[in-house]
Amino acid sequence: MKENRRSFLKKSAGLTATLAVSGGIFTSFGKDAKVASTNRKLNGMAKDAGIKFSNAYFGGLKNAKNQYLIKLARQMDVLGAVAGLDPGEAGMPNANPWDYEVIAGVKQAYKDVGLDYHVVEGPPSLYSKTKLGLKGRDEEIANFIIFMKNLKRAGIDVICYNWMPEISWARTNVERPGRGGALVTAFDYDEIEHKPLTEYGDIPAERLWGTLEYFLKAVVPEAEKIGMKLALHPDDPQVPKIQGIPRIMNTVDNFDKMLKIVPSDYNGVTMCQGNFSLMGADVPTLIRRWGNEGKIHFVHFRNVEELSGVLPSTKFTETFHDEGDIDMYQAMKAYYDVGFKGSMRPDHVPTMAGEENTSPGYMALGNLWALGYMRGLAESVSKEAK
């Protein structure tokens, strides 16, 4: 018995000496824990490159597709919410959408499902009266200013808007077969170029420039006072006219012109990558220019394939984020390098297997895929820089 004890102690002493020389299980375990802790801190610092990753919830919180997307978003820890403003979400369907109680109620409805509603896309009180200069535009603009003030009071400080009266986002095909049979949206100007005019006839582009200037001069000074970021979205598609309605936000030069009408840190751009690529811009280069000027207030992270051979494009298709014309790694790197910390959401994603194409471009699984891809890019550029 004594011999066995003596042998055990001898072996234990030898093992302790070996561990001490080699770093040992105890020292090594402590070191691994420290490395793991450092890695967690680095991952936290690198996560999404400091950008507010978000999803669009068009159609409202009760929409079946959105209810599924909300569950996925919480599991992904992508809690930013982008949407229009529906008073019904606040239980006040007949109230004015610019009233503070409505806005606060909608924000709370999103909070109740674990989301942070922080960008309004498609604001109320900004319709054809303002964009076409019709009777009643001053009332619309006055309500828009009230809307801005109440949004800011509720903690929302970005408005994504467009200058496309009557005919907004347009596609000629919303179920084009993409990679592996996924469904994507596409556009071909030849299919709609000769459609009949709207009730407003053939409108000159100068008219829309005049109404845009009128709006900006009325609204931007008020936005400056409260710190509201106005992010103008490009025309989509970026063709000259559709049914007699001009598309003036269809070139980079025209955006530069718009930014000079009322120079302000709060007069900015929604960087919808697909549209600017289809205008002929090198997207990473444009991100660096406008980003360094503080003009990018909101981002639509999307990719496209140009098919017409002319720019601005008259024929194109959406793609998965990893297969279009844009260098998406360099785009994400550019956002990181200019210090963009605002909201970014995937846009115009494919409809994938097992989904009904009820919301072309905005189905849940495509958003899931896109956000994973975006998060990988963001971590890569962030850790590479550090």
UniProtKB/TrEMBL annotation:
Native organism taxonomy: Bacteria, Pseudomonadati, Bacteroidota, Flavobacteriia, Flavobacteriales
Enzyme class, broadest EC rank: lyase
Highest taxon above the source species: Bacteria
Source organism (scientific name): Autumnicola lenta
InterPro entries from the UniProt entry: Man_deHydtase (IPR004628), TAT_signal (IPR006311), Xyl_isomerase-like_sf (IPR036237)
Keyword Lyase found: yes
Keywords, in A-Z order: Iron, Lyase, Manganese
One matching Pfam family: UxuA
Catalytic activity: D-mannonate = 2-dehydro-3-deoxy-D-gluconate + H2O
Example of a GO MF term: mannonate dehydratase activity
Annotated function: Catalyzes the dehydration of D-mannonate.
Family indicated by similarity: Belongs to the mannonate dehydratase family.
Metabolic or biological pathway: Carbohydrate metabolism; pentose and glucuronate interconversion
Cofactor(s) it depends on: Mn(2+); Fe(2+)
PANTHER family for the chain: MANNONATE DEHYDRATASE
EC number(s) on file: 4.2.1.8
UniProt protein name: mannonate dehydratase
